[in-house]
Every structure is written in structure tokens, then in C-alpha cells.
Design brief:
About 80% of the residues lie in helices and about 0% in strands. By secondary structure, it is mainly alpha-helical. The chain has one domain: TerB-like (Orthogonal Bundle). Helix 2 packs across helix 4, helix 3 crosses helix 4 and helix 3 runs antiparallel to helix 6. The termini are far apart.
């Protein structure tokens, strides 16, 4: 969604400001989570087809998106990921907007993408560790989530 489209949407919905806040907040969470996940697909220097498929799948399941919506979100997230200088911009949004369970789900989604190709590269593991720390997810929870994901994927 372009900036002008967002502005037009806000103007159109000025009559119900509370609902608009929630909608923009959810969009902000989706984009921040998706950008972290996109980063996980490229951090090891190789873009694996299976990681891309899992990326789309976890976004569709988590945010109840259809295939077109997830494709658009991934495109926007890839742009944000390329512009980002660090993880803090994404994790701060998620920390502000999500409760503990929501932040745990983001870390679990990261593990889903990271294990998709069957190899956990050191850069990928480091990314999950750093993101989890910034999200306030404990080392214990991070390891539990990794094991849960690995068990699901054999």
C-alpha cells in the first residue's frame, strides 16, 4: 500500500478513529514480523526456495492472509528489510504491540523459516538469538521453540 493510499484510507475512516488505530497497528505488526522473516531467508547468503514457501505459509497462517495478500506483504517487507540498518526497528514495533505470547509466536515463526531448508546456518541462529533478545524472549523459551519446530519438521 502506498503512502497516498494509506493517507486516503485514514481520511476516509476519520469517523472511527479507534478502529483505524487497531488496523494500522495490525498492519505495522504484520510488516515488522514479515521483514524479520524475510531477513531470515537471506541472512545466510542463500535464498532457498523452501524457506520462501515456509515464509509465505507462516504469514498466511499467522495473519489469516490469502496468497495475494501474503505476496504483497512479502514484497513490502523485502523493501523494508533492504532499507533497515538493524533489527531494532522491527523488534521495537513487535515489543510495543504484542504481548508475551505474540512475541513467542514471532520467534517460533523465525525458527520455522530458519529450519525450512534443513540446515541452521550460524548467521540464522544468531539472527533468532538477537531478535529473541530484543523481543524479550528468554533463552529458555527460544530453545524450547526451536525444539518444538525441529520436532514438527523431523
Amino acid at each position: 500500500m502506498t503512502l497516498w493510499t494509506k493517507i486516503r484510507t485514514i481520511v476516509d475512516k476519520l469517523g472511527d478513529g479507534a478502529e483505524q488505530q487497531v488496523d494500522l497497528g495490525e498492519e505495522e505488526v504484520r510488516l515488522a514480523a514479515a521483514a524479520l522473516l524475510v531477513h531470515a531467508t537471506v541472512v545466510d547468503g542463500e535464498v532457498d526456495r523452501r524457506e520462501g514457501e515456509v515464509l509465505r505459509d507462516v504469514l498466511e497462517r499467522r495473519f489469516e492472509l490469502d496468497h495475494g495478500q501474503s505476496g504483497q506483504l512479502i514484497k513490502q517487507a523485502a523493501q523494508k528489510e533492504q532499507e533497515a540498518v538493524d533489527l531494532y526497528g522491527f523488534t521495537s514495533v513487535l515489543t510495543r504491540r504484542l504481548d508475551r505470547e505474540g512475541r513467542l509466536k514471532v520467534v517460533e515463526m523465525l525458527w520455522e523459516v530458519v529450519v525450512a531448508d534443513g540446515v541452521i546456518h550460524e548467521f540464522e541462529a544468531n539472527l533468532v538469538w538477537r531478535a529473541a533478545e530484543l523481543l524479550g524472549v528468554t533463552s529458555r523459551d527460544r530453545v524450547i521453540l526451536r525444539k518444538r519446530v525441529e520436532n514438527r519438521h523431523g
